[in-house]
């Protein structure tokens, strides 16, 4: 009997689908076609012998087996990429960008395209995960730079541009004024978890946590299915199947940080900072040293 194997490239596609919210954005982040990413998912399902994702309208949702394999895939990719960077860095100029997954969907397409233009002689790799994980990867020298997000109560919230917004399913009637508000939130640690609770404090509404999720794609799928409202970063177009929650409390401002170390190439640091400032404005971007910026 031939042993089952999970190739690294399909595993990377699986992780990208979870982190970016779908096949289209995953293909963009990996610089592949949508057809290639879909083929990777089917290959993993053949090897696993079970469905890993299911179609939910226009979206993909992970099955329990898919969620389990996703956890293994992320661990494998971290180890694989660390080994590649360790033994390949002397022959190739590889720059890796760790990006907080809760905001990656709104900044990643522009960041990818601009870095290819600004740094054409370098290979740029992206790793999407939680704030605390990409910061730890930066500390461990597993990524060259980190783009993290934080709630910034000292800044005035914006009605447009990069902002936090409470989203609700487009196909489900929102709760009335006297009804309890179900919430979908990230499991801890997450920079948006406590602000989600704080937003409803003092509003007169009762609320409860109805669903907890580990990644943004699963959270958006849960909201579409009716699991409750979720506080998420948005930029221009809202995710398919979602709309602003009527009567939701005002959300705090969101700010991104470009976090670097003394090992970060200055060309990469400057390119990431310039791209984000052009995209969301100088007041929404911080440039911080990893040595002096406390771990979120």
UniProtKB/TrEMBL annotation:
Keywords: DNA-binding, Transcription, Transcription regulation. The keyword Transcription applies. The keyword Transcription applies. Residues 6-63 form the HTH lysR-type domain. GO terms for molecular function: DNA binding; DNA-binding transcription factor activity. InterPro entries: LTTR, LysR_HTH_N, LysR_subst-bd, WH-like_DNA-bd_sf, WH_DNA-bd_sf. Gene3D superfamilies: Periplasmic binding protein-like II, Winged helix-like DNA-binding domain superfamily/Winged helix DNA-binding domain. Belongs to the LysR transcriptional regulatory family. This is Putative LysR family transcriptional regulator.
């Amino acid at each position: 009997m031939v042993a089952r194997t999970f190739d690294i490239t399909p595993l990377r596609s699986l992780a990208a689908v979870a982190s970016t919210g779908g096949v289209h954005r995953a293909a963009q982040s990996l610089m592949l076609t949508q057809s290639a990413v879909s083929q990777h998912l089917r290959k993993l399902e053949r090897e696993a012998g079970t469905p890993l994702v299911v179609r939910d309208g226009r979206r993909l949702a992970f099955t329990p087996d898919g969620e389990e394999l996703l956890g293994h895939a992320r661990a494998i990719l971290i180890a694989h990429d660390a080994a590649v960077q360790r033994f390949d860095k002397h022959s190739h100029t590889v720059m890796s960008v760790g990006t907080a997954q809760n905001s990656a969907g709104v900044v990643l397409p522009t960041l990818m395209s601009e870095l290819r233009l600004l740094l054409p002689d370098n290979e740029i790799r992206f790793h999407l995960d939680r704030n605390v994980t990409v910061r730890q990867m930066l500390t461990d020298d597993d990524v060259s730079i980190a783009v993290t997000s934080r709630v910034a109560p000292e800044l005035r919230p914006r009605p447009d541009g990069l902002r936090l917004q409470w989203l609700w399913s487009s196909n489900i009637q929102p709760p009335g004024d006297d009804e309890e508000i179900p919430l979908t939130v990230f499991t801890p640690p997450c920079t948006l978890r406590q602000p989600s609770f704080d937003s409803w404090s003092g509003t007169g509404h009762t609320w409860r946590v109805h669903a907890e999720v580990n990644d943004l794609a699963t959270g958006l799928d849960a909201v579409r299915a009716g699991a409750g409202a979720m506080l998420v970063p948005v930029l221009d177009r809202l995710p398919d199947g979602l709309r602003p929650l009527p009567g939701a409390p005002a959300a705090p401002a969101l700010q991104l940080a470009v976090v670097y170390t003394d090992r970060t190439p200055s060309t990469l640091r400057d390119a990431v900072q310039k791209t984000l400032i052009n995209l969301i404005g100088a007041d929404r971007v911080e440039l911080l040293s990893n040595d002096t910026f406390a771990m979120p």
